[in-house]
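Annex B. Sample input.
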Amino acid sequence: MKKIHLLLLLILLSAMKLNAQEKNNAAVLANHQAIYVVDLKKAANFYASIIGLQQVEEPFKIGKHAWFKTGPHTTLHIILGADKPKEYFKNNHMCFSVRSLDDFIAKLDKNHVSYEDVKGQKSAVTTRVDGVKQIWLQDPDNYWIEINNDPSVFQ
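Annex B, continued. Sample output.
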């Protein structure tokens, strides 16, 4: 009986090691996304206080960058220098997941930030075919942002 337990333990540990190796052997991993903005302070404040991202240290220290943690190993780089906001297609967007879309919407409403569903209906929520709820909003430079409640992100 002891040998069976030992064998099962070895099989389990081997499977865990293989799974960990699969996760770490990806050929390409996301590192960062960069956006070019008119007003760095305004954009950084939006991503910190409205979106809720944590600002992290950036190496340049020249007053033209703000970096925000977007995942365990990914960041958003906000770069000062655009002469004016541009218009973007909604399909060209970044996406963040929240645990409670209702709480996030309440924060948007409190801060008078408008949002819409995928079709453009103001203050409306889209429910995807997989049941995930999503909204869309724009930052101060008109970059589109999707916010959803995809639970798989938090597993």
